[in-house]
Amino acid sequence: MKRIGILTSGGDAPGMNACIRAAVRAAIANDAEILGINSGFSGLIENDIHNLDRRTVANIIHLGGTILGTSRSPEFRTLEGRKKAFSVLEKHGLEGLIIIGGEGSFQGGSLLQDECGVKIIGIPGTIDNDVYGTDITIGFDTAVNCALEAIDRIRDTALSHQRLFFVEVMGRHTGFIALESGIGGGAEELIIPENAMDTEELSSRLQRSFSLGKKSAIVAVAEAGRPGHSVDLAKEVERRTGFETKVCILGHLQRGGSPTALDRILASKLGVAAVNALVEGKSGLMAGEIDNKIAFTPIQETWERQKALDSELRDLLGVLCD
Ligand code: F6P
Prior knowledge:
Elements: E1 3-8, H1 16-29, E2 33-37, H2 40-45, E3 49-52, H3 79-91, E4 96-101, H4 103-116, E5 119-124, H5 140-161, E6 164-169, H6 176-184, E7 189-191, H7 199-211, E8 217-222, H8 230-241, E9 245-249, H9 261-279, E10 285-290, E11 293-298, H10 301-304, H11 311-320
Parallel strand pairs: 1-2, 1-4, 4-5, 5-10, 6-8, 6-9, 7-8
Antiparallel strand pairs: 2-3, 10-11
Bound molecules: 6-O-phosphono-beta-D-fructofuranose.
The site of 6-O-phosphono-beta-D-fructofuranose has 10 residues, from loops.
């Protein structure tokens, strides 16, 4: 394989730049050329492509976001759009494509592979950590630490004013960020889609905690497809309990920022593994990490199978919350 394309797709995630840097340097080490595609699949369709060399990826390892830019491309979801994308790949003589993104991006890439024959390797890059085939996705650790810092800061105010706080974190369909930042931040309760709890139960659990002497509490809430829903949740709990509630929605604050060491190292390992796999002629796989080892998973499994939340970690909250 002599020419490889690389793009980032879907929500940006801290560590994507470290991954691009690693892939570029691994390609050069394999005597392959690597081209950067701007703005994800939209940029591929638009032929927004440029050469990447050692120097273009210098001094980016510590930067959040993605130097290539990203998008969620509706046009790429159409056969017409993917045909345009393939003609651009052919024009540049690109034999393989590295896609850094989440399961939606992998689905698009997989269609391109099946319809047009281009070789693809996925790398899991999303703060949500909701990709099967890897213990952790690029960006998750940074986002968890950002949410954790927010919870710590909010705890100061919760304690000083004796208040009940709802901190809403990201996670489109899953509670990974809420669970880890909630456990790490000592949250009293957790509202995540994997473990539904209605407001009646939440209210009575909080009432019980306060009756045991608690003066303040933090509920970590996963956004779960309804950004801002913690406002209604808090109102309902306030109505039921009479406790004063406050809501803090972290939103996009937790998606940017300099990646943690863990994210940079993971991204570097996966970037190199993906290039090596393409050079060896592999395709239709995602490079992830399982039990601290690089693991390749058939790409369709990444969206067909559901990554389970760590149930032991979830159960810890029941023990720790009082
Ligand atoms: O997938 C990452 C994520 O940040 C989700 O947690 C969130 O639901 C979604 O992206 C928001 O996407 P956008 O930035 O396009 O609104």
